[in-house]
């Protein structure tokens, strides 16, 4: 069956992403994106964070309409599909199980192979998603990728589509988590990153100084920064109960500047040590306007060739799962029907 499918042209890959709180499905035709549908779950905002049980229930409700819509928008029939790529992990196990079980059912029904995709690898390879009628530059191997999301902060050395090495990572909180927690202290919504980004536009990034981590190598730490932020607010509120209200924008601009400085300092060290000047950013936090500006500034100052994803490819999406699946399809790397999802795994 697998060899037969590989001969099919064009190659249509259905990608399915369900690792956290977004149900997404995308269709690629010979590596070019035909559709990318994302059903987000508003239910979690009332709780200030993702509730795993609610997430998996919402995936169950969303997966059939989301996949149907992606196939419809691609202008194909499900029988045209060559293979289904799905996120096997890491992520919330209940959420992953929905994508894994759905993929098994559909692949058996259609008689096509399933392809397992590592969610983190998907983020890193999002830079290779091609769109119709858009001439797009792609990174050359090897390149460095700063992968920053709600659950990860890593510097990845990408040697090939299927050969990646994490050379630095957070030893505690992720950058996105730091944004989310600081926003929560300020009474902002979940997720907090976009809120901090928006408030920061009208604030002074130098208004407050926060303790920066001193960690060896290319590793990160954000828990001390979060505590430093919390203590400043606690102390200032004792002096002025309206402190947050009065200084909200300055607080957001200052914490954002500090997170970006920490991220960029280690990334620059990695560039200088490896001599690799092709540098990409990926993951939800790569939507941050300050981080995007920092990439542009470093490119101008240090001669980096940078790759910053389109906003819709920064947060969790199935297009990145589909493109990773497409490369695996070309290599004949298929998954077993007995495979189960995993909540934790490295690249
Ligand atoms: O990649 P992602 O969608 O999910 C994970 O796999 O974690 O990333 C979500 C994270 C959240 O922490 C969110 O606050 C952060 O990305 N984020 C941002 C921005 N947009 C999303 N952080 C800072 N600035 C933004 N504009």
Structure, described:
The chain has 347 residues and is α/β, with parallel strands linked by helices. Helices cover 43% and strands 18% of the residues. It contains ten helices and ten strands. A five-stranded mixed beta sheet has the order 3-2-1-4-5, with helices on both faces. Strands 8-7-6-9-10 form a five-stranded mixed beta sheet, with helices on both faces. Helix 9 (289-302) links the parallel strand 9 (278-282) and strand 10 (305-307). Helix 2 (52-74) runs parallel beside helix 3 and helix 5 packs parallel to helix 7 (223-239). The radius of gyration is 21 Å and the shape is globular. The mean pLDDT is 95. The chain binds 5'-O-[(R)-(carboxyoxy)(hydroxy)phosphoryl]adenosine. 5'-O-[(R)-(carboxyoxy)(hydroxy)phosphoryl]adenosine binds next to helix 5 and helix 6.
What is this entry, summarized?
This protein is 43% helix and 18% strand.
* Ligands, deduplicated: 5'-O-[(R)-(carboxyoxy)(hydroxy)phosphoryl]adenosine
Largest sheet: 5 strands, mixed
Strand arrangement within the widest β-sheet reads: 3-2-1-4-5
CATH class value of the largest domain = Alpha Beta
Topology overview:
Layout: H1 2-7, E1 12-17, E2 22-29, E3 32-40, H2 52-74, E4 83-89, H3 93-110, E5 114-118, H4 119-125, E6 143-148, E7 153-160, E8 163-169, H5 175-185, H6 193-200, H7 223-239, H8 243-274, E9 278-282, H9 289-302, E10 305-307, H10 318-330
Parallel strand pairs: 1-4, 4-5, 6-9, 9-10
Antiparallel strand pairs: 1-2, 2-3, 6-7, 7-8
Helix pairs in contact: 2-3, 4-10, 5-7, 5-8, 6-8, 7-8, 8-9
This protein binds 5'-O-[(R)-(carboxyoxy)(hydroxy)phosphoryl]adenosine.
């Amino acid at each position: 069956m697998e060899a037969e499918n590989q001969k099919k042209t064009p190659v249509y890959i259905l990608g399915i992403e369900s690792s956290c709180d977004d149900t997404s499905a995308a269709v690629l035709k010979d590596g070019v994106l035909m559709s990318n549908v994302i059903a987000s779950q508003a239910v979690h905002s009332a709780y200030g964070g993702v509730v795993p049980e609610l997430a998996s229930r919402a995936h169950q409700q969303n997966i059939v309409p989301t996949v149907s819509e992606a196939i419809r928008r691609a202008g194909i029939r499900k029988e045209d599909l060559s293979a289904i790529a799905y996120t096997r992990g890491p992520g919330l196990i209940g959420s992953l199980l929905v994508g894994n079980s759905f993929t098994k059912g559909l692949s058996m029904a259609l008689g096509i192979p399933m392809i397992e995709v590592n969610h983190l690898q998907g983020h890193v390879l999002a830079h290779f998603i091609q769109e119709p009628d858009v001439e797009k530059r792609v990174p050359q191997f090897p390149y460095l990728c700063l992968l920053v999301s709600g659950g990860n902060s890593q510097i990845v050395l990408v040697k090939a589509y299927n050969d990646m090495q994490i050379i630095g990572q957070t030893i505690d909180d992720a950058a996105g988590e730091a944004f989310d927690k600081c926003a929560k202290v300020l009474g902002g919504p979940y997720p907090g990153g976009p809120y901090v980004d928006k408030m920061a536009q009208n604030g002074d990034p130098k208004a407050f100084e926060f303790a920066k981590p001193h960690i060896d190598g290319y590793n990160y730490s954000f828990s001390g920064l979060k505590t430093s932020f919390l203590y400043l607010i606690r102390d200032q509120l004792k002096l002025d109960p309206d402190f947050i209200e009065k200084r909200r924008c300055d607080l957001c601009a200052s914490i954002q500047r500090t997170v970006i400085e920490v991220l960029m300092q280690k990334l620059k060290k990695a560039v200088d040590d490896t001599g690799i000047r092709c540098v990409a950013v990926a993951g939800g936090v790569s939507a941050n306007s300050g981080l995007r500006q920092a990439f542009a500034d470093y490119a101008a100052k240090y001669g980096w060739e940078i790759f910053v994803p389109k906003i819709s490819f920064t947060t969790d999406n199935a297009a990145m799962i589909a493109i990773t699946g497409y490369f695996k399809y070309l290599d004949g790397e298929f998954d077993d029907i007995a495979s189960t999802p995993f909540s934790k795994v490295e690249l």
